[in-house]
Amino acid sequence: MDHAADALRTDLMTITRYVLNEQSKHPESRGDFTILLSHIVLGCKFVCSSVNKAGLAKLIGLAGETNVQAKKEEPITWVVYSVGEEQKKLDVLSNDVFVKALVSSGRTCILVSEEDEEATFVEPALRGRYCVVFDPLDGSSNIDCGVSIGTIFGIYMVKDFTEPTLDQALQPGKNMVAAGYCMYGSSCTLVLSTGSGVNGFTLDPSLGEFILTHPDIKVTALF
């Protein structure tokens, strides 16, 4: 890679530009999905900033609550229950950030967070056609030792969003309209798929924008 040439490049493909380009391929689109993604990106930027200054802001440590985990019971059933894994302060903050960002987008009707025992149903005035499932800060047990942590999310479309039910959030993965993760470490990287390939974006702190740095990511076949 020619880093000198890359540093002088001015025709940057930001994640906003990328999503708008994808939207233009669908003339029937009303922009709802684009608005939703922009709020997810905003949440990722906020959490990234909080992770970077967690020690200074006293966000490292326990918040005194427990989150929800899944335990595998033989032979094949999964039982969801509260365990003694105490929530980190940054967990709680990250969850609040994403819930508020998603609700304020006006494009969601159901939010399912790993941090909350119950799903969040958005009030009718702010309700939209999408369900978002997410873990606001996966790997939070690594916060204190500075290991990479991240946000995971998936987006489903809900047909009848005027009266959403929990069953509408329990859809198979093949029904997702988008999925991705944002990893917070030495750099902040957001990997996104909207159904037509996978692309990676890296946050440029000087611009405050995610820039396309890993286009069309593929896994090399081993066989």
Automatic annotation (TrEMBL):
Q: Name one GO molecular function term.
A: fructose 1,6-bisphosphate 1-phosphatase activity
A cellular component term from Gene Ontology for this protein is: cytosol
Q: Which domain of life is it from?
A: Eukaryota
Question: What residue stretches are annotated with the Fructose-1-6-bisphosphatase class I N-terminal domain?
Answer: 13-215
Q: What is its EC number?
A: 3.1.3.11
Regarding protein family, the annotation reads: Belongs to the FBPase class 1 family.
What name does the UniProt record give this protein? Answer: fructose-bisphosphatase
Lineage of the native species?
Eukaryota, Viridiplantae, Streptophyta, Embryophyta, Tracheophyta
